[in-house]
Amino acid sequence: MQIHDSCRSAIEACLKTKSFAIARLYNDEKTMSIHIHDCNEVYFSISGGKQFLIDNRVYEFGPGDIFFINQFESHYLSQVDRMTHERVVMSIHPEYLKRFSTPQTDLGYCFSCRDTPFGHRVTLTEEERRRFTYYIHRLSENGEFGQDILDQAAFLELMTYLNRIFISHCSKGADTPSAAPEGHTRHGQIDEILSYINQHLSEELSIPLLAAHFYLSGSYLCKIFKDSTGTTVNRYIIAKRISRAKALLMQGHSVAETGSLCGFRDYSNFLKAFTRIVGISPKKYASYEH
Fold it and tell me: With 0-12 CB in 10 A as exposed, 13-18 as middle and 19+ as buried, what is 7?
């Protein structure tokens, strides 16, 4: 498969194909502002030497560090020295992971579980680094007959391996490896809450309203939501509304109509939220070819 030379092109390819894309980066590209987009990301640092701001928490890259970022978490990469920062970045569409997950194996677990002692970062051992690199090399092979099937197989092996590493690190700080996935599913109400939000994005949504609808206290709702998704209720609602807004703008809806259809009661708030998250105004986004 194609290995991209910029994060932007990998993200665009991931969203276009609704699957996954890989970028291997040796030089610095223009740093994107703090952003949220519609895919999960795995950042593997080969050389270290950068700082990563994820949902207002600062991490510093070391060699062999791997970060798991879900689609709703804002993140920002900044330089702390003049060294070239070599890294591999995988952009992964959440629906692609769901396609291959099973009731026993949730391939998105490393992105959704945030109730861990180590946050988003795991430092790989030498053996784990070698195996990660082995999978990336398999995905980098040129397109002979059947390469698309082999790419898919290598990707699924890699995501299974990364989740095993993630669960292993969870076990060192809290639960046992077998208990970690149970922690992810212990709040069965979360699926119903997510479904309700996605079906009512054009309507009023608030923590008190959701809490009343599901007969929960607001504080308990916020806790189980953050534990299960890694993000807050309000951040999730905004991210989903902006994601829908992008789709509506691409379909030709006006900016004002889009804001209303996505549940923004105030036109100015829609402009500010869209520009902050996407990086450009809704009008400019609608004028681009996608």
Answer: buried
* β partners of residue 59: 52
CB 29 within 8 A of CB 10: no
Residues in the chain: 290
- Cα dihedral 197, 203, 209, 211, rounded to 10, equals -10
User: What global pTM score does this model have?
Assistant: 0.64
Angle formed at CA 225 by CA 124 and CA 68, multiple of 5 degrees: 20
Helix axes of 189-199 and 233-250: crossing angle, nearest 10 degrees: 40
| DSSP H stretches of helix in the chain | 7-17, 94-100, 109-112, 126-139, 147-173, 179-185, 189-199, 207-213, 218-229, 233-250, 255-261, 267-278, 282-287
User: What whole-number distance in Å separates Cα of residue 21 and Cα of residue 11?
Assistant: 7
Distance between CA atoms of 64 and 184, rounded to whole angstroms? 26
pLDDT-derived band at 183, boundaries 50, 70, 90 = very low
The model's pLDDT over 33-42, given as tens digits with 9 standing for 90+, comes to 445 667 899 9
Angle at 241 between CA 239 and CA 246, to 5 degrees: 95
